[in-house]
Amino acid sequence: MPFGLVSAWNKRRRSKSHDHSDPWVYKPAEHWQIEEQTPRATKRHHGSSVFTLREMEVATGSFREENFLGKGGFGRVYRGTLPSGEVVAIKKMELAPFKEAEGELEFRVEVDILSRLDHPNLVTLVGYCADGKDRFLVYEYMKNGNLQDHLNGIGEAKMDWPKRLRVAIGAAKGLAYLHSSTAIGMPIVHRDFKSTNILLDTNFEAKISDFGLAKFMPEGQEIYVTARVLGTFGYFDPEYTSTGKLTLQSDVYAFGVVLLELLTGRRAVDLNLGPNDQNLVLQVRHILNDRKKLRKVIDPELSRSSYTMESIAMFANLASRCVRVESSERPSMEECVKELQLIIYTNSKGLGGVTYTFRKLY
Ligand SMILES: Nc1ncnc2c1ncn2[C@@H]1O[C@H](COP(=O)(O)OP(=O)(O)OP(=O)(O)O)[C@@H](O)[C@H]1O
Ligand SMILES: [Mg+2]
């Protein structure tokens, strides 16, 4: 039970300090004020653990360079080994002082949301550390890193079309679960869905990560209006950026961008290209339903024997609908899952081996 652990640990902290106005004094989850109306239900089968700074140091060999996995906006990520022998990924919060308050909120949202979710296509939060001013997030270790690295040739294994389709459907199922009320009783919008936040396990099974910007969308309040637009350049829903109206469909737009990355092997934004070609959606949107022109944008790294043009055309059509400017014209994530099942079936059948069987949605 994560909240039991948080409270127990908090009692320990409170006994050291009575200054409740200090933002660095750890408060129980009930006081985090992420969303006052959120239910306290938990879906996790196993709770997340609370670690000390010392335990984080021991796990990573004092953050040794050889354990360094990568760096993002929040800080560095290291591979670590817990006393149980479990290999984990440890994300260390390293922010400039003026960004610390924002980082703290993201940290709390991440712990709060992720410790309540349980789905094979969402990364598991093993635990966290909030020791003094130090903050760490401890995740299950994803051996094959993030999707973007594979599409850009940093990962060793080339991803053929069936593998890419499996990643697409895995990510779609993860998002569909978040958007459904089955997760915690109300839909959640991820807000930072992108190819670096799709992690791949040993079998190239996709798991969504980074929930720091996620938001609960209670029934009847499916639209959240904000003056501050958060997310990543290249994945922004144009309706959200122009009106501030955040909906679940903003994730669908970002999902469409990832589909285009899978199809073309290009980045969502490539600053090495000329100003008119930098944005992937703007670059390819108009040709997605034109089979002849479509051939020209298929990732040249894709082995020709791994795909049928029929499945590529269906995939491009789905992507084109996900990135529509009008959010109401985009499909839901549940519809995306169903269409991807059909695309996988079509590709497999076209290649002469129907090995795919329809499974349940989530
Ligand atoms: N659970 C994990 N297992 C293995 N590697 C991970 C894990 N989590 C993150 N990484 C790696 O650590 C690196 C940094 O990840 P991080 O999420 O901090 O940044 P990002 O998603 O690349 O960028 P941003 O901070 O802008 O969202 C990535 O290269 C990612 O592959
Ligand atoms: Mg990330």
Automatic annotation (TrEMBL):
- Residues forming the Protein kinase domain are 63-343
Catalytic reactions on record:
L-threonyl-[protein] + ATP = O-phospho-L-threonyl-[protein] + ADP + H(+); L-seryl-[protein] + ATP = O-phospho-L-seryl-[protein] + ADP + H(+)
User: What GO cellular component entries does it have?
Assistant: plasma membrane
What is the protein's major site of localization? membrane
- Per the UniProt entry, the Enzyme Commission number(s) are 2.7.11.1
Question: What does the record give under GO molecular function?
Answer: ATP binding; protein serine/threonine kinase activity
Q: Tell me which InterPro entries the record gives.
A: Kinase-like_dom_sf, Prot_kinase_dom, Protein_kinase_ATP_BS, Ser/Thr_kinase_AS
Q: Which SUPFAM superfamilies match?
A: Protein kinase-like (PK-like) (SSF56112)
What keywords would UniProt list here? ATP-binding, Cell membrane, Kinase, Membrane, Nucleotide-binding, Phosphoprotein, Serine/threonine-protein kinase, Transferase
Sites binding ATP sit at K99
EC main class here is transferase
Give the location in the cell: Cell membrane
In the record, the note on similarity to other proteins reads:
Belongs to the protein kinase superfamily.
Name of the featured protein:
non-specific serine/threonine protein kinase
What species was this sequence derived from? Cannabis sativa
